[in-house]
Amino acid sequence: MELILWRHAEAEEGDGTMPDKKRRLTARGEKQAKQVARWLHQHLPRKRKVMVSPAERTQQTAHALDLPYEIEPKLGLGASATDVLTVAGWPDQAGAVLVIGHQPTLGRVAALLLGGEESDWTIKKGGVWWFSNRIRNDETRTVLRAVFNPDFA
Known about the structure:
30% of the residues lie in helices and 25% in strands. By secondary structure, the protein is α/β, with parallel strands linked by helices.
């Protein structure tokens, strides 16, 4: 299985007047999303599933990819690392699953997969962390295949 975590691109700051889930991407965020989407198009396998949080900014990030996606309420603000892994079907789902979500959740997923326990790791706005699950000598291994940030585009 391939699990790709994509943090939404830069969004408007919350000012308390609108619900957090309604915050939209900034002009810079739209540019970031397009840059990362170009990179993903070059690397995503054909067999893939794209799942996004119900928040406006994650859906806008997904639009830059121009692929079908599913809105998954369990990936919303306040989701746990376990929620993300369960919804994605880690580690048994066939193919690739791209999850577009939020901090601190995605950083906690990365920490859990690589370090064995949740910790508050940071994934930059618009950043992608790509994991694979492999079985070697009857042992399941998690491999970090790539980290990509919009400023590398």
